[in-house]
Amino acid sequence: MESIILFVLVLFLLLLGVPVGISLGLSSVLIIAFASSDSMSSVAMQLFTASQNYTLLAIPFFVLASSFMSTGGVARRLINFAIASVGHFRGGLAMASVLACMLFAALSGSSPATVVAIGTIAIAGMCKVGYSKDFAAGVIANAGTLGILIPPSITMVVYSAATDVSVGRMFLAGVIPGILAGVMLMLAIYVMARIKKLPYEPWRGFGEIFRSGKDAAPGLFLIIIILGGIYGGVFTPTEAAAVAAIYAFFIATFAYRDMGPLKDTPWLSSTENVQAHRGFNAIIYAVSCFFVFLVMSFFVTSGMNGDHYTLASRSLLGGVLSVIVLFSYILWRGKEGMGSVTTCLMAGLPVVGKNMMLIARSFLPAMFNHDTRKVLIEASRTTVMLMFIIVNALLFAHVLTSEGIPQVITGIMLDMGFNWFTFLIVVNILLLLGGQFMEPSGLLLIVAPVVFPIAMQLGIDPVHLGIMMVVNMEIGMITPPIGLNLFVTSGVTGMSLVRVVKAALPFAAVLFLFLILVTYVPIISTWLPYSLMGPETITN
């Protein structure tokens, strides 16, 4: 009886327009106060326990990293790289937008952030070359959902916190499904482009791919830091999130210079001669090669015999590679032979020194710059909103558990003869309906504690279940009336919500097909994490 009252209270408050977090928390408190044997002190204990959850601590840092990476230049560079890679296909600009969303998803972990960052640039670009605004909006609204499937994903962190499944395995499990979903969207675009005779970009050669990839590389290296650090055993997902936030700040402020006191300040002024340009670039590439090699070798050799892979030995090998890169670049860019190396280096070193002094002088001001404050305030607002929903949802999950509701539902479903196949159909329907009305994190924290024990009883893999639930959350983000990506796309394009919904529907059908694949072909989700980390063990 208490379970019926609890769910009726939540639905009643949601229909009244009460925010999701308050609906969950207030319903839980009322049940504990008037209809449960649990004491009111459990409310305080659950709120304190949720606030001390180490896994959830990753969320504020991933949100902050996403905010820094969303400041303009990163998205533009990713789009340029994507256009150079796939723009020459029919419908190439739309396909490039999907690829850019996939890359940005791997930096942000957020669907709305992906839609805003990529959509702001890509939709205008598609309209300019002849795509309809509706087509462009539909592509971005759907491709943006990959933000919660491709790791690092905030939604996966929430699922892991609710079920005690490994965050690392969940992140790895999202790689192949994320790539598959992106490829399926691009194939759908290609077919539609052939039918509608949509435009394509001229093939610009591998040189353009290399140049645009070089510009995007500092941002994309964040993926290596997060995933390499976690699976190299260097740090936990929470520590990876903190490192990602710091790295994103440095890249946005000092490397790309899209914000802060160095905003729009070029690394090389127009007055520098050719030798200075060549020498500066050679030094930057060599130093970058050295540090990238140190980081990558540290991730790869972590846990191996420390006597053979010391910092000194790795630094020596990295130094040799860097010198080779330095000489090779200068000789490749010039035709004067070995004599030009010294000239270029002597001309480039003062430029490097000037930039280093500029960064040193700007370091403290950058921390208190109005751009930095704006990013911190935006990230704080998002974090407070998410954590408020999550904490109240965890309180709701505690009430479900204390009243034995999951066990009751498990018994009923098993008595009715449910097997894994029919159970997954029910979970998909439940999540698809719930995703129309609730924010993904809150819905996941409500549903996961109920369905997880049943899934374990039926022999369903916990990582597979998690990815399936995340894909459902994806579809919920493009499903009216509360689909968040629909509202964000509407805001970016200025189109009405109804028009955005109609534009997104054809591509949503692709995601429905993808959901069926993920649901009934579990190896898509489980092969990579279990190959690298072994199977997930559920002890509770």
From TrEMBL:
It is found in: Cell inner membrane. InterPro entries: DctM (IPR010656), TRAP_DctM (IPR004681). It is a multi-pass membrane protein. Coiled coil: none annotated. The keyword Transport applies. Residues 7-260, 338-522 form the TRAP C4-dicarboxylate transport system permease DctM subunit domain. The chain crosses the membrane at residues 57-75, 87-107, 113-131, 138-159, 171-195, 216-234, 240-259, 280-300, 312-332, 384-405, 417-437, 443-470, 482-501, 507-530. It holds the Pfam family DctM. The keyword Transmembrane applies. Belongs to the TRAP transporter large permease family. NCBIfam families: dctM. Part of the tripartite ATP-independent periplasmic (TRAP) transport system. The complex comprises the extracytoplasmic solute receptor protein and the two transmembrane proteins. This is TRAP transporter large permease protein. It comes from Vreelandella maris.
